[in-house]
Design a protein that fits this description.
By secondary structure, the chain is of the alpha/beta class. It is built from eleven helices and 23 strands. Strands 9, 10, 13, 14, 15, 18, 19, 20, 21, 22 and 23 form an eleven-stranded mixed β-sheet that branches. Strands 3-2-4-5-1-11-12-16-17 form a nine-stranded mixed β-sheet. β14 and β15 form a beta hairpin. α5 packs parallel to α7. Its EC number is 3.4.15.6.
């Protein structure tokens, strides 16, 4: 694997200084990507936080997108569907890529973040929305040479005075102080970590790469497309790379949002999926030449309106949910998940149906390998700290939550000896 193995990352503390200077009064809507136009919970909360359909003034920053005008118009139309007049949703012309669907060359907008007129436009807004695409474009444009542009300062001022800052996909990745720029769970667990200035091509074996983000979310590292792209492993490694800094990570599923209230330091899981909280505060990393070995990682999963209090690190389940701990429904001994033929292959289903709502087992095991001999055993278990919750919140669709599930990761070697008959 032709990948450097050392992380040389100097993270900027500018957002931390801003946070200390003035506690933000606003909210964050951090969407994990693939936001459906029909996602009422996310859109309606965003509009409400922006002042309602009549008072909302939304500025859209399309910098990450390869089609900035096309996807701005789609978002503008989505907000109009929920009652916000199109004239109240404006495009901020900062882009890196030319949108081939228009006659104008939008790539000429790439230096516009220094324009004081655009910063003044944000000062009149109640909300800012970052489109998805490539998060590196956003950081490079809004923090040229590592310093805040006038436009970025204006976004911070909006957040501090009580406005809402939202974004999807790449627009979610930039929210934390440490930004995940690239990488897969496999390469991260196998300890393929690139320095922040390495040029990384978008391939399936790209290394984990961390950069400085925009720092609106102070509680830990954000990751997005968390469920479909199986970014669970890479977020664990990204959090572990923080050293003495933050020991928390937050993975946001597609078509889902982490809605954060800066004033109270609480967040809510909205949308069709949920939010995974990764807690390494009590975890122990063990040196192993094969890859990441770690004990006592703690996981929590929120969905369907569950809330989480960052002050106490407590899960606050939806009031309609009932506790499954001590009254588990399932009875499945020795649950093991190894691939697409296994039941409950999604992380949220595996740790709830096979563990927190399963009286037949106190641990559930999953294996990750790529057919090259290296394997990772993931042992999920429950103890006195672990809690589960469940309810039907939408017809007969299960809506489960889990709190403080333990995870141990051990790398090893495996030999697969297939014997096909002809």
């Amino acid at each position: 694997m032709k990948i450097p193995y050392l992380l040389a990352l100097g993270l900027s503390l500018s957002s931390a200084f801003l946070w200390a200077k003035q506690q933000p009064q606003g909210q964050l809507m951090i969407v994990g990507g693939a936001l459906a136009s029909s996602n009422q919970a996310v859109y309606q909360q965003f509009i409400q936080s922006a002042g309602g359909t009549e008072q909302a003034r939304v500025v859209v920053i399309p910098t990450a997108s390869s089609q900035p005008v096309k996807y701005f118009r789609q978002f503008q139309q989505d907000l109009a569907r929920y009652g916000v007049p199109e004239q109240q949703v404006q495009l901020l012309p900062i882009a890196v890529k030319d949108d081939k669907s228009t006659a104008e060359d939008e790539s000429l907008w790439q230096n516009n973040a220094t324009d004081p007129k655009l910063a003044a436009q944000i000062q009149q807004a109640t909300a800012v929305w970052f489109l998805g695409g490539d998060q590196n474009h956003l950081v490079d444009s809004l923090k040229p040479d590592g310093n805040n542009s006038p436009v970025l300062d204006a976004v911070w001022q909006l957040y501090q005075r009580g406005g809402i800052v939202g974004g999807t996909s790449a627009g979610a990745a930039i929210m934390s102080d440490t930004m995940i720029a690239s990488g897969s769970s496999w390469t991260a667990l196998a300890r393929a970590v690139a320095s922040s200035d390495t040029v990384v091509n978008e391939t399936s074996d790209e290394p984990l790469q961390l950069r400085t983000g925009l720092g609106f979310f102070p509680e830990g590292v954000i990751d997005q497309h968390f469920d479909r792209r199986a970014r669970f492993g890479r977020l664990i490694v990204a959090v572990a790379e923080q050293g003495s800094g933050s020991a928390l990570g937050f993975g946001v599923d597609e078509d889902s949002a982490l809605f954060y209230q800066a004033k109270t330091r609480q967040f809510q899981a909205l949308g069709s999926g949920g939010v995974t909280v990764i807690d390494l505060r009590q975890a122990k990393k063990i040196s192993n030449p094969l890859g990441l070995q770690m004990e006592n990682i703690r996981l929590s999963y929120l969905q369907g309106g569950d809330q989480y209090d960052m002050n106490s690190h407590q899960l606050l389940p939806h009031p309609a949910k009932v506790k499954t701990t001590g009254a588990e429904y399932g009875d499945h001994p020795r649950p093991v998940m190894s691939g697409v033929f296994s039941a409950n292959t999604r992380l949220k289903d595996f740790i709830t149906f096979e563990l927190t709502d399963n009286k037949g087992a106190n641990e559930a095991v999953s294996y990750l390998h790529q057919g090259n001999g290296l394997v990772f055993e993931l042992t999920f278990s429950k103890d006195e700290k672990t809690l589960g919750y469940w309810q039907y919140l939408d017809g007969l669709k299960d809506n489960s939550s889990a709190y403080q599930v333990r995870l141990d990761i051990v790398p090893g070697r495996i030999q697969i000896d297939l014997k096909p008959q002809h």
